[in-house]
């Protein structure tokens, strides 16, 4: 473990809040500072801004949609089952529905059908809805054969996606592929273009768009309001949940989407917040990433994700209340399953270790023989293998692949470290795989049972060759080394101008050395730790085991982030420990 800091504040230095913010902006090499600090509203951003080729492509889509609407033909919005896909699917389906289209959503069953377009899923859509057009949300960019199959069945396909392209691009009716956005972000801008075009077409005459709804508003008025509030909030959930870098248009979506939460009228979102105990609270990327999105994801992981879509779209408050509580319970079940499975995974790893190094009577480091961790268990639930991989990769700082058996195949989920592109790695082993898709740091794939052994052997050998020892050295890059005495409320308030924090714009971190003046345990099971370094209060979640190693008066080195805890009109400075 190495700690590297970009700038050091000496005890004698004077550092104003303004200078601190400028230092961080400079270190992060932000080019357009004005736009970064004041991201433009997504309402001012067009899908056409991402690629000039989209203008004629969108024209063809609008022409096709007009024909479909005229003939009262069916459209299916075929969306992914994760939080990004569900929020994007909700935006696009509801937009088309309120515009008067005959449209149905379709969410594949994770266990029975798997991710994205598959022949079984396309057949199910044909059997159930008989559409003339399928629009994908958050998938499709790699599905060449499956889209060809749909076309032979007489179905047109439009792809909206953000995932990594494969060698071949599908021959769809139209493709809107924007890697800088989340799937829900692409869906938001695509739906907004459709609304703008049909709004122009239907302006000034009676239409389904202008029909009076049960709440007294026309569909046109509702849609205009939705793109300003509800759809922005939904797109911000998907963007944060999918770990998209918060720069450029994605930063705009999250900045304005989080602000929109206080104005959202949607029963589904309101009851998620209420059930989670965060109603009325300022919504930040933390609440979305660790409270809201996991609830939406839990449905697709353990049950059928269509219920998550129903929750986000229902106009029945009683139904929203019931679904939000069901989903909250599922999330608790998911947490228990993950905790149990991660413990099992760690036991498997410890059983393989060639050496366990002991220092001061405690295990400090597990020595692993291989540079990639591959774990296989038929007991693990398919819906949580990505979470297992994520936690193992984080703890052991190695690319991690977790596999479980399902219906004669093995489903795999992979998570990586910053220096190793896991999807490119898996695609180099495509002869062993049925399919694969993902990003630089996360991927999913399917493998035939008979190829499991050859895959694990080949993948391990290749990873050992490609991954260097220096890649596996965890480096904590800190923004500023600073004396604790320099930390105050004004400094921390100035950092809030850099929000929202997340991937691509992490919360600023500090490194300090000081004297431990107190240490306490807290939480229902005393599993959390609170320490005081001089007068600065710092907390560490799930690190209660370190309490026994601490004593008042000892010198301590700590890396932490800072925030202001606001409650009942009071402001309290608090830090969160990153490393100690």
UniProtKB/TrEMBL annotation:
Residues 478-574 form the RecJ OB domain. Residues 75-196 form the DDH domain. Gene3D superfamilies: 3.10.310.30, 3.90.1640.30. Residues 371-463 form the DHHA1 domain. Signal peptide: none annotated. Pfam families: DHH (PF01368), DHHA1 (PF02272), RecJ_OB (PF17768). One of its GO terms (molecular function) is nucleic acid binding. GO terms for biological process: DNA recombination; DNA repair. The keyword Iron-sulfur does not apply. Keywords: Exonuclease, Hydrolase, Nuclease. SUPFAM superfamilies: DHH phosphoesterases (SSF64182). Belongs to the RecJ family. This is Single-stranded-DNA-specific exonuclease RecJ. It comes from Candidatus Roizmanbacteria bacterium GW2011_GWC2_37_13.
């Amino acid at each position: 473990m190495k700690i590297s800091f970009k700038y050091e504040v000496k005890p004698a230095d004077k550092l104003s809040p303004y200078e601190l913010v400028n230092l961080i902006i400079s270190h992060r090499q932000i080019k357009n500072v004005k736009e970064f600090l004041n991201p433009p509203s997504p309402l001012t951003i067009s899908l056409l801004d991402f690629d000039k080729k989209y203008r004629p492509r969108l024209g063809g889509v609008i022409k096709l949609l007009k024909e479909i609407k005229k003939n009262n033909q069916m459209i299916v919005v075929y969306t992914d089952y994760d939080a990004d896909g569900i929020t994007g699917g909700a935006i696009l389906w509801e937009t088309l529905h309120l515009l008067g289209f005959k449209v149905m959503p379709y969410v594949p069953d994770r266990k029975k059908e798997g991710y994205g377009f598959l022949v079984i899923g396309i057949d199910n859509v044909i059997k159930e809805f008989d559409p003339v057009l399928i629009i994908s949300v958050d998938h499709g960019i790699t599905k060449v054969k499956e889209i060809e199959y749909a076309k032979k069945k007489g179905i047109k396909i439009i792809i909206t996606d953000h995932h990594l392209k494969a060698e071949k691009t599908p021959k769809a009716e139209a493709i809107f592929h924007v890697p800088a956005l989340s799937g829900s972000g692409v869906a938001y801008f695509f739906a907004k273009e459709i609304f703008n075009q049909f709004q122009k077409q239907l302006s000034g005459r009676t239409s389904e768009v202008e029909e009076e709804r049960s709440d007294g508003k026309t569909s046109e008025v509702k849609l205009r309001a939705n793109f300003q509030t509800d759809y922005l909030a939904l797109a911000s959930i998907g963007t944060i949940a999918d770990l998209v870098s918060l720069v450029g248009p994605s930063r705009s979506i999250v900045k304005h989407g989080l602000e929109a939460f206080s104005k959202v009228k949607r029963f589904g979102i309101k009851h998620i917040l209420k059930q989670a105990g965060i109603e009325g609270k300022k919504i930040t990327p933390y609440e979305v990433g660790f409270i809201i999105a996991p609830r939406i994801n839990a449905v697709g992981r353990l049950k059928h994700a269509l219920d998550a879509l129903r929750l986000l779209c229902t106009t029945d408050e009683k139904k929203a209340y019931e679904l939000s509580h069901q989903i909250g319970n599922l999330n608790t079940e998911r947490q228990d399953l993950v905790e149990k499975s991660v413990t099992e995974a760690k036991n498997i790893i410890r059983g393989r270790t060639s050496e366990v190094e002991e220092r001061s009577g405690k295990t400090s480091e597990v020595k692993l023989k291989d540079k990639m961790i591959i774990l296989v268990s038929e007991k693990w639930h398919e819906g949580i293998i990505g979470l297992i991989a994520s936690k193992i990769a984080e703890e052991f700082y190695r690319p991690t692949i977790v596999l479980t058996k399902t219906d004669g195949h093995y489903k795999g989920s992979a998570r990586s470290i910053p220096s190793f592109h896991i999807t490119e790695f898996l695609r180099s082993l495509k002869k062993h795989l049925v399919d694969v898709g993902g990003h630089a740091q996360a991927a999913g794939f399917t493998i035939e049972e008979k190829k499991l052994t050859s895959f694990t052997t080949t993948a391990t050998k290749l990873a050992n060759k490609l991954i260097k020892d220096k890649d596996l050295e965890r480096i904590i890059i800190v923004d500023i080394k600073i004396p604790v005495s320099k930390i105050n409320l004004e400094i921390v308030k100035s950092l809030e101008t850099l929000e929202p924090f997340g991937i691509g714009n992490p919360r600023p971190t500090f490194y300090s050395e000081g004297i431990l003046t107190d240490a306490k345990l807290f939480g229902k099971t005393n599993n959390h730790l609170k320490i005081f370094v001089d007068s600065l209060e710092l907390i560490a979640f799930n690190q209660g085991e370190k309490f026994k190693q601490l004593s008042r008066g000892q010198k301590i080195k700590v890396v932490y982030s800072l925030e202001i805890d606001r409650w009942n009109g009071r402001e309290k400075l608090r830090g969160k420990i990153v490393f100690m």
